[in-house]
Write a structure and sequence with these properties.
Length: about 475
Amino acid sequence: MLNPSLPKSPQIDSSHPPLPRIAQQRLARLQARSARIGVIGLGYVGLPLSLLLSEAGFKVTGFDNDAKKVDDLEAGRSYILRILPAEIAAARQHGFSATTDFAGLSHQDAIILCVPTPLTAHREPDLSFVENTAKAAAPWIREGQLIVLESTTYPGTTEELLIPVLEMGSADGLKVQGSGAPEEQGVFYVAFSPEREDPGNVTVARRDIPKVVGGHEAIATELAATLYEGIFARAVRVSSTRVAEMTKLLENIYRCVNIALVNELKLLSLRMGVDIWEVIDAAATKPFGFQPFYPGPGLGGHCIPIDPFYLSWKAREYDFNTRFIELAGEVNEAMPAHVVQYVAKALNGHKKSMNGARILMLGMAYKKDIDDLRESPSLTAIELLREQGAQVVYNDPYFPKVGRGRHYNLNMTSTPLTDLQQYDCVLIMTDHSDYDYAAIVNESKLVVDTRNATQGIVSDKIVRC
Ligand SMILES: NC(=O)c1ccc[n+]([C@@H]2O[C@H](COP(=O)([O-])OP(=O)(O)OC[C@H]3O[C@@H](n4cnc5c(N)ncnc54)[C@H](O)[C@@H]3O)[C@@H](O)[C@H]2O)c1
């Protein structure tokens, strides 16, 4: 039976049959944190998660098909800026190790999948990473194990893709625990639990972010919730994997649509001569019914520009158009072009043409104070500026070098922040805290600011857009 000290699950109640022995054993090990946890995909999500689990006392093994990452971790090196080598060393002392060999999966009590879910070139869900990982893991799945998918995806992925691939590849002919009476033998458990992260946010401790958990059935929900309660202050149990999958998409679509709204209102405010940032700050004083979102040069990161389109793609199966998502995508995707138009206009005001202009771009990261440039609007803006003949260089303390852009190999190196007079325009794309904006304005001929980073600085050299 369930430990009575556990938080009450909405799904397992007194009318539910006792937990089968194989689930009881896992549950006890998860509660005691003596369970072995395998994390597949040691990127921005999987590595911090592994360290958190290790810190809580679990025995963690990381699995990744990128041998370079595995070598780095085995040598105690970090490849993510905000994770210090000392944190990896501490985890290694607690038994953390990394490997490319999936055979070790068979020794785990629970396996968490944190692999990428990007879009294809035609902006359709690319689930090949989830599928390939499931295929590679399936032969090593053992009876009673819990498998959790954390990768962001459309509702239905866990049941329509992950479970069939695992069942088909199972060397022991295992099946997922069904919805009827709990089987004692021949089953494994599956849940979906989305990752919630706000890179660069130092105000909310990772532990205090509630973790949404939806199992394929009640036992899986309970096992997964118990696992996460070992590292998070609260697990939020929901009734199915689909609800958990959709919850993550709602959160990201909400952000995407609201950012599009303020981006559109910024375009109007610029025409009206109204400062949209001042408007947002004033509106944010309302103690109810308003949450501030801020305009910018376009969306970036691995989530907001991508995840909503997972749902719009899936919606087509139901003859349904997700109009808010499409409209938000249209507005947000037009922002880098808007920035470039403003740079041209600002240069024009200085009797300079874009063709041949020397432009210093500040910030390659999609967001301030982080070392992530995935989907960064800076990449698009560089390509658009170059198309119009501008000579673009960049500075970003987080990126000494940049290889590929969206469409071209940019192959650029960060330029020192010196002699700013040599540039026709300094373009602020990312409002990193390290920059001294007053000094930058002072030393530059012209500053185009897409982030309101120069707020409070009065100068006719600044063009906010
Ligand atoms: N980064 C974020 O802030 C964030 C936030 C919330 C949700 N997510 C979601 O989490 C998931 C992972 O994102 P991420 O940012 O950690 O990605 P990432 O690219 O940083 O890391 C993914 C890792 O998976 C590994 N990998 C890929 N295929 C593999 C395979 N077949 N076998 C083993 N390893 C494999 C890669 O080598 C890489 O190390 C995505 O679905 C993403 O949408 C990310």
